[in-house]
Amino acid sequence: MSRPVWTGSLGFGPMHVPVRLYAAVSPKQVQFHLLHDADGARIQQKRVCSADGEEVPFEHVVKGYEIRRGRYVEMTRGELEAFDPQSSRTIDLQDFVELADIDPIFFDTTYHLMPGEDATRPYATMAMALRASGRVGIGRLVMHLKEHLCAVWPHERGLVLSTLHFADELIPQESFSEFSGTVPPVQREVESVLDIIETRIVDFVPQRYQDLHRERLLAFLERRARTHGLREAPAEAPESAGEEVPRVTRAGRAAGRAAPEATGGEVRELPTRGSLRLRQQAAREMRERTPRGKRAEGTATPRPRRRKGGSATKRK
User: How many domains does the chain have?
Assistant: First the structure.
């Protein structure tokens, strides 16, 4: 079961009911990741300074509000937190309106409003009262450090909550130039369109409408996986603080490819990613698999280790 995105109470006047807020919609959009075509590894997004091109650590990133083009006023995280709305665990319904009076353009995100612990009976009481009134409760909700205008109304067996856009967030159609010179329609043409609409009037059944584009795309991806196989992403390189990892040059890679007999016919390259310790382990494994009498030309023989006193350690 999914986790609630918010917990608190819903009420007005003397009545308050413990409730939990759950997402009512699970988007089914097909998500793609950015991969490196050479090795299939994930592409990482980095914070880069636009002036010098250097990567910027997170502790040196501040927020700025653009007053004029190219002119910013900076604020620290502490200053921004002081302006955050007061955290509240209560949805106070201030007004009750007709659902039909709310223009659908105001609706943003819808959630299931479920009863909290030991609140089944008062929750059912409030849901039945709202259903009997035929009204929608309008209130305010603080979630994710943002204040939302919201509407609560009965749906199926319980209640739902939808966040609403504020009036000043909507863009009026009058601001678009396309409505500056509107031509009145011809009545005969309007009646012709009405005749077409009447032939297609049906009851709304959500299950009739499927995301055909997503279904075709998923079917294609399944066929591609069967015919071309799957590509496994390499392990991500661990971040080693203060440890410089040597790079493998093109000449070194060419030498490794030119000596397959050194590994019994198998071409094996040292990993170009990862910590120095892992590369040394890979090199040691390759030496162990190589017969002593069949070392490839140009392959350096491991030097014996030297003790602190300067004497060489004899090989067994």
Answer: 1
Assigned domain for 261 exists: no
Instruction: Name the residue range of residue 146's domain.
Output: 7-24+84-169
Averaged pLDDT, 36-45: 87
Residue 127 lies inside a defined structural domain of this protein: yes
Own/partner long-range contacts of 148-152 (Cβ < 8 Å, ≥24 apart) = 148/108, 150/91, 151/99, 151/102, 151/107, 152/10, 152/91, 152/93, 152/113
Q: Does residue 178 fall inside a structural domain? A: no
pTM of the model: 0.61
Q: What is the pLDDT of residues 273-297, one digit of tens each?
A: 443 444 455 455 555 555 554 444 4
DSSP structure class, residue 48: B
In a domain, 79, yes or no: no
Mean pLDDT computed over 142-148: 86
Contacts for 87 with CB less than 8 Å, ≥ 6 apart: 142, 145
Amino acid at residue number 143: M
pLDDT at 142 exceeding the cut of 70: yes
13, 93 in Cβ contact below 8 A? no
**Tokens representing 207?**
């299950």
Cα 197 to the center of its chain, rounded Å: 40
DSSP state of 309: T
Count of helix runs (H) and strand runs (E) in the chain: 6, 9
Element (H, E) at 257: helix 250-257
pLDDT of residue 129: 93
CATH number at residue 111: 2.40.290.10
Q: Give the pLDDT confidence of 46-62 residue by residue, as tens digits.
A: 899 999 989 999 888 88
Torsion over CA: 66, 70, 76, 77 (sign): positive
* Residues in Cβ contact with 269 at an 8 Å cutoff, skipping those fewer than 6 apart: 248, 253, 256, 257
